[in-house]
Amino acid sequence: MLKVDIHTHILPRDWPNLKERYGYGGFVQLEHRGTGCAHMIIDGNFFREVGPNAWDTETRISECNLHGVQVQVLSTVPIMFSYWAKPQHTFDLSKLLNDHIASVVADHPERFIGLGTLPMQSPALAIRELERCVTELHLPGVQIASHINEWNLDDEHLFPFFQAAQDLNAAIFVHPWDIMGKDSMQKYWLPWLVGMPAESSLAICSMIFGGIFERLPNLRVAFAHGGGSFPATIGRIEHGFHVRPDLVAIDNAINPREYLGKFWLDSLVHDPVMLKYIVELIGRDKVALGSDFPFPLGEHVPGRLIESVADFDQQTKRMLLANNAFEWLGIDGNKFTS
Question: Which one of 2, 33, 124, 176 counts the least CB within 10 Å of its CB?
């Protein structure tokens, strides 16, 4: 079966020294080690080691072939969002990253689809770059974080961006970053294990309770990591809506359960019981293969979990492995199957 992986990350092999370019630090640089791997460095401090599959196209294609993945949807590594920086500098960095992704797609249009990144701390600049991504670079959508500095995704500053995305028919992929409570979770990799799932639920709840899906019914949004903790807590969320509407239903009086099936989740849940649950919860047409390639918390053989669920018939597997990705992206998948 065709596999389309909507959750994969890519970096350029090299980019300019951003501290020199912008006049202050805090940005990521890639330091190649001569071993085939590279270190992501922030102001001289080690952040993460990445292998050549993070930037080398041929390595990616080779690994995709090994795992039977025909198409990857490419997005930047979330630490590159740089929403904390001066807006004009994130705007410039976004253009560098987006041009790179567009060039990878242009070189291998049968294997890759691209998502842009935006200076979301300035919605006006974000809309400018969104328009360029869609109209000039021909990217079908963008990736954004689960919140933007002090703004949750329901903040009115951000609504013009969501309106523009709907008007441009652009898909949105929401990925957790700048994790809540990270300073109190220093041990056990807890920001990634506990904080990231909470961030995804924060994003979904903010968009539901803020009325984003109600006001923009044609907006196509997918959330990473199977929606994080949201699916497991929808009962609690709905109960809170009923018992304290004075606190919960202040911007949208519609039951949050009514929005199940109106957004997409990726399949990255690492557990067959949970995968079956989210498919039942939001519909078999709203879950799409996502692996978090090439990072260790991802699914190391993309699609294996979907393929392993005996309760899924062949049509359901085809939908989860590929068809739903094309529906979310708003593109014709026939060119990838011919």
Answer: 33
Beta strands in the chain (DSSP E): 4-10, 28-32, 38-42, 45-50, 71-76, 112-116, 141-145, 147-148, 151-152, 171-175, 221-223, 264-266, 287-288
Residues 6+ apart with CB under 8 A from 88: 119, 125
Q: How far is Cα 317 from Cα 309, in angstroms, rounded to an integer?
A: 9
Report pLDDT digits (tens) over 262-289: 999 999 999 999 999 999 999 999 999 9
Which residues fall within 8 angstroms of residue 242, CB to CB, at 6 or more apart? 255
The whole model's pTM is what? 0.98
The residue ranges of every structural domain in the chain are: 4-10+52-337
Each residue of 292-305: pLDDT tens digit?
999 999 999 999 99
Mean pLDDT computed over 163-185: 96
Neighbour-count burial for 231-259, b at 16+ CB within 10 Å, e otherwise: bbbbeebbebbeeeeeebbeebeeebeeb
Decide if domain 4-10+52-337 falls under CATH 3.90.226.10.
no
Mean pLDDT computed over 156-167: 98
The whole-number pLDDT of residue 212 equals 98
Structure tokens at 17: 């020294």
Of 73, 253, 135, nearest in space to 64 by CA: 73
**Nearest alpha carbon to residue 134 among 118, 120, 116, 121:** 116
Q: With contact defined as beta carbons under 8 Å apart, do 323 and 288 qualify?
A: no
Residue 64: burial class (beta carbons within 10 Å; 0-12, 13-18, 19+): buried
